[in-house]
Specification:
It contains four helices and no strands. The chain folds into two domains: about 80 residues; about 35 residues, no CATH class. By secondary structure, the chain is mostly helical.
Length: about 120
């Protein structure tokens, strides 16, 4: 029998699906912009080349961040379907709804996240 999602989980699924669609559109648009930029490259002076290099680097960084976010969203959608959404991967405790509303693809509770980010964790 398939897992039956709670109302909150259905709400999170809708939110994650919307965020996923927005990211996919953004990545597609960015790739179109990248192709357009590459298509306009010809013989340029060093200032033009430096400017184009910066634009390409920025597009690559944004695409990398968007791809990472898309992967996190996809993983959250998988956890929803499997019935283990909102469970901290470190301590196994339930992640508070407030945290999930703010960051629906969170995999750690606030306490574990703070421990991970603490400079004294070693």
């Amino acid at each position: 029998m398939a897992y039956q999602m709670t109302a909150f989980e259905k709400e999170m699924e809708a939110m994650l699906s919307e965020q996923r669609n927005v990211l996919i559109d953004k990545i597609a648009k960015s790739n179109d912009d990248f192709q357009a930029l590459v298509g306009t490259m010809g013989i340029r002076d060093s200032i033009d080349l430096a400017s184009e290099d910066m634009a390409i680097s920025k597009m690559e960084a944004v695409n990398k961040l968007d791809a990472s976010s898309l992967k996190a969203i996809d993983q959250a959608l998988i956890r929803l379907k499997a019935g283990n959404f909102g469970v901290c991967k470190k301590c196994g405790k339930k992640i508070p709804e407030g945290r999930l509303r703010a960051l629906p693809f969170a995999v750690l509770c606030v306490e574990c996240k703070n421990k991970d980010e603490s400079p004294n964790r070693f």
